[in-house]
Design goal:
Blueprint: E1 8-11, H1 15-26, E2 31-34, E3 46-47, E4 56-57, H2 64-68, E5 84-85, E6 89-94, E7 100-103, H3 107-117, H4 121-134, H5 136-143, H6 154-164, H7 168-171, H8 178-188, H9 200-214, E8 218-219, H10 224-236, E9 240-242, E10 258-261, H11 265-272, H12 278-285, E11 292-300, E12 314-319, H13 323-334, E13 344-347, E14 362-370, H14 379-389, E15 397-403, H15 405-411, H16 427-432, E16 448-450, H17 464-480
Parallel strand pairs: 1-2, 1-10, 2-9, 6-12, 10-16
Antiparallel strand pairs: 3-4, 5-8, 6-7, 11-14, 11-15, 12-13, 13-14
Length: about 475
């Protein structure tokens, strides 16, 4: 039976696409979402990658941004079946000799531990982070919202933005210990940039504040539960999701006055290239996706034997050693080289959520950054870093599932070359999006908008790219009288 044409169509059922669809449905539109895969979620899916009973998040696990996101705060996640499990320690940065930088939810507790490592570091941490944590409710609408308006809380934004503009390596010079520098650098390396690049401190500060206020939680049962909740809310509003429906051209879609695309610039060129103005198409072709990732999912027979006991309580760990070592690793990647001693982002979700593995067993994932498009297996380099801080880890490994950067592109076309953030983190992209236009979401095609992680505020499960694009589309409809 033929489906009736909706008021609005969304392509892509990742968190941004679903956030856009929910926003449009709340605006009174009938909405249909088309998803190429057999299930919704994009990078927010959960699967038994290594064996029955072992639940692995295919990409995103830690959902701190979902806790603080202005969009997600409009959803009653608990009523929708989402249970957030918060680790005792948000994240840790192990160092040689059994030392570690440890970020507790409490700023004072974190500062006290840093003072033990180097007198004065605790006070410097409190001065840098404390005011942002105290006023974090003012911060998120500014950082994750529209940067095109006069800020409602200019002092809070200045406390974030001024140190955030500098490279994380420069900001780390405020601290005397490798523990404090490691906490800052490990968070800043999430930007997937060399640590001497501007704006890397903004990534670090945003994630550090989110760790202090939200503990970097995981979703009980896997991140796919969060997507299920979004689909449930969309369905309640009258929207629908159609899976196993790839879209290769705008002509594949039913006629609708509003179309939102949770795709990146290269997919937009594939879908609508013939209809786009030449100058706009050239800008899309120049979009820089940045590095890719190589990821390993593990099924383990027991908990990881970290030398530092605090690391055993942390949900997330940043491996790589000192600030200088991390900086060298990220510089290698940005120069197109595979690092011998990579920065490794590691999440041990079953430490806080035992439902992810059979009794007594654990799941774990680890990834490192690699040049875009890489098909190189980095298992040896990653496991060398894990063994460095957790001797005997290899004896616990029951199964591994690996995915190269090129494999991530095959898994999800939005991950061009394995770039999971949708584009290189830069001041240009954060403010203007992939093309220098006043609207960061509208394309030159009437009623067609981009709403992926390639648009501001960028990567992460926060739904704000979808929410902001859909809000702009609704305003345009109202202005046109549609």
């Amino acid at each position: 039976m033929a489906l009736t044409a909706p008021d609005a169509v969304v392509v892509g059922a990742g968190p941004n696409g679903l956030a856009a669809a929910i926003t449009l449905a709340r605006g009174g539109l009938s909405v249909r979402v088309y998803e190429a895969a057999s299930t919704p979620g994009g990078g927010c899916r959960t699967a038994e990658l290594t064996g029955p009973g072992y639940l692995h998040d295919v990409c995103s696990t830690v959902q701190a941004l979902a806790v603080v996101s202005p969009f997600f705060r409009t959803l009653d996640l608990e009523a929708l079946g989402v249970r957030l499990r918060r680790p005792e320690i948000a994240y840790a940065h192990p160092l040689d000799g059994g030392r570690a930088g440890v970020l507790h939810a409490d700023v004072d507790a974190t500062a006290a531990a840093l003072d033990d490592a180097h007198p004065g570091d605790g006070r410097a941490w409190s001065r840098l982070v404390g005011p942002l944590v105290r006023h974090h409710e003012q911060l998120w609408p500014e950082v994750l919202g529209s940067l095109r308006r006069v800020p409602r809380h200019p002092l809070t934004l200045a406390r974030f933005g001024l140190p955030g503009l500098v490279p994380v390596r420069a900001l780390a010079s405020r601290f005397g210990s490798e523990e404090a520098r490691g906490l800052l650098a490990g968070a800043g390396a999430h930007a997937m940039r060399r640590l001497e690049a501007p704006l890397t401190s903004a990534f670090a500060l945003a994630l550090i504040v989110a760790a202090h206020v939200a503990d970097w939680p995981v979703v009980e049962g896997g991140s796919g539960v969060l997507v299920d909740a979004m689909v449930t809310e969309l369905t309640r509003l009258g929207g629908e999701v159609v899976c196993d429906h790839p879209v290769r051209s705008l002509r594949d879609l039913p006629p609708a006055a509003t179309t939102l695309l949770d795709v990146t610039p290269h997919q937009l060129l594939d879908i609508a290239g013939d209809e786009l103005p030449p100058g706009y198409a050239r800008s899309l072709r120049r979009h820089d996706y940045g590095p890719g990732v190589f990821k390993i999912d593990y099924a383990l027979s027991g908990p990881v034997p970290w030398t530092n006991p605090d690391c055993r309580k942390a949900g997330t760990l940043h491996l790589g050693g000192t600030l200088s070592e991390l900086a060298r690793s990220e510089s290698d990647v940005e120069a197109g080289r595979h690092p011998d001693a990579p920065y490794v982002l590691l999440v041990q979700g079953s430490v806080v959520d035992p439902s992810r593995a059979p009794a007594g067993h654990h799941t774990l994932w680890a990834y490192c950054h690699v040049p875009n498009g890489s098909d190189r297996d980095m298992t040896r380099e990653i496991e060398r870093q894990i063994e460095r801080f957790a001797p005997g880890f290899g004896d616990l490994v029951l199964q591994r599932a690996t995915r190269t950067a090129a494999g991530y592109h095959r898994y999800n076309e939005n991950y061009v070359g394995g770039a999971i953030n949708g584009g290189l983190a830069s001041a240009f992209g954060a403010v203007l999006g992939p093309v220098a236009r006043w609207s960061r979401y509208a394309t030159p095609l009437d009623g067609v908008y981009l709403c992926s992680a390639a648009t501001p505020p960028g990567g992460g499960v926060h739904g704000m790219s979808g929410y902001l694009a859909a809000s702009e589309a609704l305003r345009a409809r109202h202005r046109s009288g549609r």
